[in-house]
């Protein structure tokens, strides 16, 4: 008789050891990087692996940080995130599939500015370890690409050569440490 794990395991983000990052081409010649400094992630696994996990992520739009107060203000405003009317970015996973070893593809629904689109992210489980205080932690690198126009972030300006000031493609790069809850 085969037994199944009917309990679930909850993981919470260790925000002090995690980063939610992105980069966008500026003038189509350099990347501008940014982070969201206020975020929350909860993952619930129904089995003893990360292939059977449900992830919920949210970020505070007003915590966007690109190391430029003027640019951050523009990003928080109506031209981009419209933080006054849409204060959160959210992602809810719909499935995670192992592709090889410790690599997965996580699919889910991303909501920015009230618009929800299905996306896929590459996930690497970088390790599981106990810290000196007995907490079990798991590390992940998450990468993906989205088109910002799909989420209503359409502002742009032409350059004198006919190009665009800001690329439509946004590259997502996150380093995440999760803590297993007792």
Give the secondary structure arrangement, pairings included.
Elements: E1 9-13, E2 19-26, E3 30-36, E4 39-45, E5 53-60, E6 64-65, H1 69-76, E7 88-100, E8 103-112, E9 115-130, E10 136-147, E11 166-180
Antiparallel strand pairs: 1-4, 1-11, 2-3, 2-11, 3-6, 4-5, 5-7, 7-8, 8-9, 9-10, 10-11
In words, what does this structure look like?
This protein has one helix at 69-76, and strands spanning 9-13, 19-26, 30-36, 39-45, 53-60, 64-65, 88-100, 103-112, 115-130, 136-147, 166-180. With 182 residues, the chain is mainly β. The protein has one domain (9-180): Beta Barrel (Lipocalin). An 8-stranded antiparallel beta barrel has the order 1-4-5-7-8-9-10-11. Strand 7 (88-100) and strand 8 form a beta hairpin. The longest helix has 8 residues, at 69-76. It starts with 8 loop residues before the first strand and ends with a strand. The relative contact order is 0.20.
Features:
Lipocalin; 1 helix; 182 residues; single chain; 8-stranded antiparallel barrel
| Helical amount | under 10%
Supply the number of structural domains: 1
Order of helices and strands: EEEEEEHEEEEE
By DSSP (H or I, 4+ residues per run), the number of helices equals: 1
Distance between the ends: 29 Å
Low-confidence stretches: none
- The strand line-up of the biggest sheet is 1-4-5-7-8-9-10-11
CATH topology: Lipocalin
The assigned CATH architecture is Beta Barrel
Query: So, the CATH homologous superfamily?
Result: Lipid/polyisoprenoid-binding, YceI-like
Radius of gyration of CA atoms, rounded to a whole number = 18 Å
Question: What share of residues are in beta strands?
Answer: over 45%
Shape: globular
Mean pLDDT: 89
Q: What profile does the largest beta sheet have?
A: 8 strands, antiparallel, barrel
Secondary structural class? mainly beta
